């Protein structure tokens, strides 16, 4: 008998028919002889609707009350799913995050899970119950309800799988797996049969919405056997594991992209030992999240520093820089909006030199100018003009032969 954690996202529980379909899936697993812990999201877009509800009374709701509000979404799904299973004659119990023993840090709206008291769930499992847990929520040591950040039900599922030492954790969603890139944008995108934790973590952090980054972090730290697959169609999904085992000769396994990037250049700063730290601690103190950073030393006196931010933060960033001019002592600020970040990700880069070179040449061959670059061991990101983003992604998808992947069944 295996212990399986199955997570169903918002679309998969979007209406009563779909919840009945989820009940069927769970029943199939139980009839197969396995123990099941189910984690669910709020139905459909109901979390967004709750956010909109709050906006109706205030532009700045307190984080505590937002958590109180948003945590109700998942509570609807757990009870309805439990009723659907009971209607079919199955013994089941629904639990909120706190009832399930999910303890988080004392931080509202984006809390990390710090502990999982598993006795409650294991006791129910021993009595033969199907346990249904509300995703995305937990409780602090002092009894405050918290949420784990948007998309956080994935993290609940993986944390439970880790804590219960489950044999596997299946994330059921509205796509059939992890794709080489967004199939809505690049029609040649291919489903991967396997991807490594590290690659998935890079892609998730670069905005590939298929998995919550913290869920991948958990899976890696506790070696959880994780699969992403469709709740609607019977199809093999994508395995996320220590080392991707299939398509192993791929140097690049995925492409991520995001628009709405702005480049800011702080020109003519004094070239002294504390310049960089002054600039970035000032930005951080004002909650401005900086992505790529480039420093150009002009001469012994002067340096130019460029960084990228999300375009929504432009006005705020310019205000902060202007307000601190007398401390930062720069000569001029320039900015360029309408940019995008396009990244390639693949563990194969570690052992294959020249991957960045191939990327840059490929982009320059189709006339795309690269404005900023950043790299990690398994990632190269470029900032380019937003109008050229799709062309860049299509070009790179082809260059790294991602469209040639054969869909292999395991
Ligand atoms: N319902 C939450 C959200 O929409 C959590 C989740 O679905 O993972 O973000
Ligand atoms: Mg999700």
Automatic annotation (TrEMBL):
<dbReference type="InterPro" id="IPR054352">
    <property type="entry name" value="ACT_Aspartokinase"/>
</dbReference>
<dbReference type="InterPro" id="IPR002912">
    <property type="entry name" value="ACT_dom"/>
</dbReference>
<dbReference type="GO" id="GO:0005829">
    <property type="term" value="C:cytosol"/>
</dbReference>
<comment type="function">
    <text>Catalyzes the phosphorylation of the beta-carboxyl group of aspartic acid with ATP to yield 4-phospho-L-aspartate, which is involved in the branched biosynthetic pathway leading to the biosynthesis of amino acids threonine, isoleucine and methionine.</text>
</comment>
<feature type="binding site">
    <location>
        <position position="74"/>
    </location>
    <ligand>
        <name>substrate</name>
    </ligand>
</feature>
<dbReference type="GO" id="GO:0009088">
    <property type="term" value="P:threonine biosynthetic process"/>
</dbReference>
<dbReference type="Pfam" id="PF22468">
    <property type="entry name" value="ACT_9"/>
</dbReference>
<dbReference type="InterPro" id="IPR018042">
    <property type="entry name" value="Aspartate_kinase_CS"/>
</dbReference>
<keyword id="KW-0418">Kinase</keyword>
<comment type="subunit">
    <text>Tetramer consisting of 2 isoforms Alpha (catalytic and regulation) and of a homodimer of 2 isoforms Beta (regulation).</text>
</comment>
<keyword id="KW-0677">Repeat</keyword>
<dbReference type="GO" id="GO:0004072">
    <property type="term" value="F:aspartate kinase activity"/>
</dbReference>
<keyword id="KW-0220">Diaminopimelate biosynthesis</keyword>
<keyword id="KW-0067">ATP-binding</keyword>
<dbReference type="GO" id="GO:0005524">
    <property type="term" value="F:ATP binding"/>
</dbReference>
<comment type="pathway">
    <text>Amino-acid biosynthesis; L-lysine biosynthesis via DAP pathway; (S)-tetrahydrodipicolinate from L-aspartate: step 1/4.</text>
</comment>
<dbReference type="Pfam" id="PF00696">
    <property type="entry name" value="AA_kinase"/>
</dbReference>
<feature type="domain" description="ACT">
    <location>
        <begin position="264"/>
        <end position="347"/>
    </location>
</feature>
<dbReference type="InterPro" id="IPR045865">
    <property type="entry name" value="ACT-like_dom_sf"/>
</dbReference>
<feature type="binding site">
    <location>
        <position position="47"/>
    </location>
    <ligand>
        <name>substrate</name>
    </ligand>
</feature>
<dbReference type="InterPro" id="IPR041740">
    <property type="entry name" value="AKii-LysC-BS"/>
</dbReference>
<feature type="binding site">
    <location>
        <begin position="173"/>
        <end position="174"/>
    </location>
    <ligand>
        <name>ATP</name>
    </ligand>
</feature>
<keyword id="KW-0547">Nucleotide-binding</keyword>
<dbReference type="GO" id="GO:0019877">
    <property type="term" value="P:diaminopimelate biosynthetic process"/>
</dbReference>
<dbReference type="InterPro" id="IPR001048">
    <property type="entry name" value="Asp/Glu/Uridylate_kinase"/>
</dbReference>
<comment type="pathway">
    <text>Amino-acid biosynthesis; L-methionine biosynthesis via de novo pathway; L-homoserine from L-aspartate: step 1/3.</text>
</comment>
<feature type="binding site">
    <location>
        <begin position="7"/>
        <end position="10"/>
    </location>
    <ligand>
        <name>ATP</name>
    </ligand>
</feature>
<keyword id="KW-0028">Amino-acid biosynthesis</keyword>
<dbReference type="InterPro" id="IPR036393">
    <property type="entry name" value="AceGlu_kinase-like_sf"/>
</dbReference>
<comment type="similarity">
    <text>Belongs to the aspartokinase family.</text>
</comment>
<dbReference type="InterPro" id="IPR001341">
    <property type="entry name" value="Asp_kinase"/>
</dbReference>
<keyword id="KW-0808">Transferase</keyword>
<dbReference type="GO" id="GO:0009090">
    <property type="term" value="P:homoserine biosynthetic process"/>
</dbReference>
<dbReference type="InterPro" id="IPR005260">
    <property type="entry name" value="Asp_kin_monofn"/>
</dbReference>
<feature type="binding site">
    <location>
        <position position="184"/>
    </location>
    <ligand>
        <name>ATP</name>
    </ligand>
</feature>
<keyword id="KW-0457">Lysine biosynthesis</keyword>
<dbReference type="GO" id="GO:0009089">
    <property type="term" value="P:lysine biosynthetic process via diaminopimelate"/>
</dbReference>
<protein>
    <recommendedName>
        <fullName>Aspartokinase</fullName>
        <ecNumber>2.7.2.4</ecNumber>
    </recommendedName>
</protein>
